[in-house]
Structure formats: C-alpha cells, structure tokens
Amino acid sequence: MAKVLARLLALVHRDTDLDETEAAPDATVAETFPEDRILESAPAPEPSTGTRTAYARLDAPDRVAPGGVFELDVGLAESPGRGVTSPQPLSVPDTEFTLTVTVSADGFEVLGGASLVRTIAVNPDDPYPYDVIRLRAIDDVALTPARSILAVYAIEGRTIGIATRSVVVGDGAVPAEPERAGVDWVLPTDPDTRPDLELVVTPGNDIGGQRLFWYFRSPHPTVGDGSFVAADLPVTVATTVRQLLNGVEDRTTLDDLPYYLRGVGQRIADAIPDPVWQALKATADAVEGPPSVLLASADPYIPWELARIPWCHDDPPLLGAQTVIGRWPYLANGRSPAPAPRLELDSMAVVFGEYSGGENLEEAAREAAHLRAHYAAQPVDARMRDILRCLDGTPRADALHLAVHGNFDPTGMRDGIYLVDGNYLSPVSVEGVESSPIRLAFLNACQLAQGREVFGIYAGMAFALLNIGAEAVVAPLWKVNDTAARELAAAFYPALFTDVRSPAEFLREFRCLSVETNPAATPLAYIYFGHPLLRVKWIP
C-alpha cells in the first residue's frame, strides 16, 4: 500500500369521472395578437438575449377521493402556486425556448396512455404555458394518504429547478402551506462544473418507505435525461445492510473476504434499475477515463459505491472504483442545496487523544502529529466540550480532521465519536451546533459514514456535519486498519490541496488497491460526500 500511496502522491505533482380512454390534452394555453396592431413604422426589435423570472406551475387539488380522477397542470406560472414547494423564481430566457418537465407521481395512475415527461414550447407571446396530465389516485392501503408529486424543470438538458406538491387521497389532513427556500436544488446548475452523470434517488409514497425512484441526467447527448424509474427495496433494508457491513468486519483476516465483498456488490447492484445501469454504461462510453458521477440519494443505508458493475471487466468492477463518484443527501421534506464545486480553505484542526488501556491509537497520534507539522493543524482534545467548541469556531478552522475511535449504533446509545473519557459525541449533538465554519471534514474514525433515518430524514454523523455547513466529508463505513488509515490521510491532503484533484478522484484510485493485500478492506471502506469534481485551494 505504501508504494501505491507514494504513486498517488507523485501524481499530485503533475387529477374524477372523465373518460379514462381519452388522451391527455397536448395543447398549451396560448394568446395571439393580430398583425394590424403592429405599427408599420415601428423599428424591428433587437434580438433579446436576457432572462426573466417565472415560477414552477404544479397545480392540482389539495384533496381527491380514492380512485378519483383529477388534472395536474405542469409548466410555468407568473406567481407562486398554492401548495407548491419550489425554490425562488426560475430564471428562464426571455426569448423562445423549449421547457421539459419530468414528473414523478407515485401512487397515481396516468390516464390515456400519456407520458409523465412533457415538452412545452415557450415564447414571448405565451410566456407562461402549461400542459395537463390526467391522473387517478390509486386506492391502496399500502400507500400514504398524503402523496408527493415531484417535477423536474429543464431547458436544453439543464435543470433549472424542481417543484413538489402534496395531494391528499382520502380524509387525511391537508399539509400546511410550505415554506419557500431560496437555494438551488440538489443538482448543480453551472455547466462548467456539471458531472458526466447525475443520479437522483427519491423516496416513493409507500407507507413502508421501501420504494425508491431513480432519475438521471447527463450533459452528454448519447446519455441525455431519463424519467423516474421505480425500484423496491426489502422491508429489512436497514438491518440487511448493517449485517453485510458487519460481515466485512468479521472477515478482515479470512480468505473469503474478497469473495464476500463481491457478493455484497452483487446484492447492491441488483437494487439498481436497469435503465440506470444503461445510463452509466452510455456515460462511460462517452468519455475518456473514469466518468464523474454525482449520486444524490434519499436512501441513507445502502453503500451504492460498492455495487458490482455488470458490464465491467476491469478490476475491481465496483461503481466507486470505476467512476469518480460523490454522494450527496437528497432531502425529500426540505430543499437540498447543490454541493459546492470549489472551496478555499486556510486553517485546520485535528481531533485526537490518548485513550486508556488497549484502546489507545498510536497510529492516530502519528497522524495528528503529521498534520500539525505540515498544515499547522490546531490540536483539539477528543472530549465533548472541546470538539463542540471547535465546531462552533474555537479554535477557528475550516478543515477538520478526526483521528479517533468511532462507532455506529442504530439504537443511538453508543453512537458517534468515541471520546477519551468513554462517552460518545452523538450526531444529534453535532446538529445542535446549527452553523459551523467547518467546510471540509475527514472523519478517520470507524463506521462514521453509516447513515440511518430519523423521522423519515437522512441522519448520521456525516450528514450531521453537512447539515451544519460542511461541503465535503470523507468517512469509513466499517472498522479500518490503523496503519492503512494513517497512510491514506498522509496522501489525501497533498493530493487535495494542489487544486488539481478532488476527494472523489483520490478515493477512486485508492479503491483500486487490492483487497487481498490491504487489512480490513480499508480501500473500499471510505465514502465521500460532496461534489465529485470539487477543487480545493489551500491558502494557509
């Protein structure tokens, strides 16, 4: 491993009772102006190249009876719609353009064989057109009464926003008017920093929470944009994933570890819909070298990075090793901002401490000393008060490194950062910081990349840090080897701080290291949360 890490370092330097069979209307609302209203003497207008604002139209009744049919209007609006959750006004051209709206309506049946992907012509004479989709509310006790409808708005393959609204099926309470957040959606809007493929994994409207919907888009014409594709997970997904990861830890010294990991990879691959795999293959064919992938997922459990690629013959044939991938949490009940493509950092803090008895981490001490010597990292004792003060800004740091023990406990009793006094700093306490100057966090502590749901929302230590301001987080899924973890950290920062490689690019190469020769399968343990093409400028 040391030789390969040295190589990595070397690289641095270089809707009720309508006829169901009717087709959905295809016409948009339009207004025409007679030619004689135009003065002949008026000079020809200059071509416009500016923009204007509009709102996402996603109009539907607040409530519908089970089995009831209703109309869903999708398109643009002059003012915010009732019950619609969307970002600030959409920025659209003030000239002619084509708007594409892709709808996800889990728990509703589309009538007339219509499509949930609508293409709408927009022009100055008809600046707020819309199309109509007729839907029937499916009567099924396995579905939630309050069902979310989601729509993605795009122009020429560039997503300009998203809108959601809730339709109550039956006698349930109608949700309160949503707050409108003024942040970008989870996908980047800058064409210069778009990844080769963006995957969004959203939750369905089933009571059990096992249904996911996958959506993809790509700037490459051979890949393009997809529609929402459903995939159902087993009821026991959280328990199953935990058992699989425990299985990796139990096999750290056994000969079957590489085979076990292949089995884990195959199980995860089976949970990914075929259209997504096809999009990944088309993306890989469209670029030279490993494609960049942004995975925005509402699922906090499954390490998609370990999925075994069905058409790949390179070793290891895993998603995280054959793509430059960054994971980002998708919040179904809120508005997820897009990950930052660039960061400027100027100060670092390192958390470590001396544990009692056989729990002491000698390699972590060396790790901390290295960061103090090379990056003037300020030392923070692995005690609750000290770490929380650091997250709050004392000492000031925008990069945080943890060289400590960690533990994932779904019961929450022994969950989080293990402290030198035997206590645990919980992700819930970390979220209580609310706002932190930390922008980059490397949690070199066991199991802290694992996530779970709390009240139906993404949760875990990595998410807690993202929730209080971090833009990039690296952490392992399972217990890692101390020496390998230290060597990884020593190579990570020189690669990152040269402003030419992202954490995703570095970890992709690290995951390509042989599992057979690396204790605890350390290369495959680390997960990266952030923009796959993130560039960091270090200004100490």
**Helix/strand/pairing category:** alpha/beta
> Which CATH architecture of the domain at 2-9 and 340-538?
3-Layer(aba) Sandwich
Helical segment tally?
Answer: 12
The N- to C-terminal Cα distance equals 29 Å
CATH topology call of the domain at 2-9 and 340-538: Rossmann fold
The biggest beta sheet is recorded as: 6 strands, mixed
Report the count of strand segments: 29
> Helical content, roughly?
10-25%
Instruction: Kindly report the average pLDDT value.
Output: 83
Q: What amount of the residues lies in strands?
A: 25-35%
Q: What is the fold's blueprint, element by element?
A:
Blueprint: H1 2-13, E1 51-59, E2 63-64, E3 69-77, E4 84-85, E5 90-93, E6 97-104, E7 108-110, E8 117-122, E9 130-137, E10 146-155, E11 158-169, E12 197-203, E13 211-217, E14 229-232, H2 237-250, H3 257-270, H4 274-286, E15 292-297, H5 319-322, E16 324-329, E17 342-345, E18 348-352, H6 362-375, E19 378-381, H7 384-392, E20 399-402, E21 405-407, E22 416-418, E23 424-425, H8 427-431, E24 440-443, E25 452-454, E26 457-459, H9 461-467, E27 472-476, H10 482-497, H11 503-511, H12 522-525, E28 526-529, E29 535-538
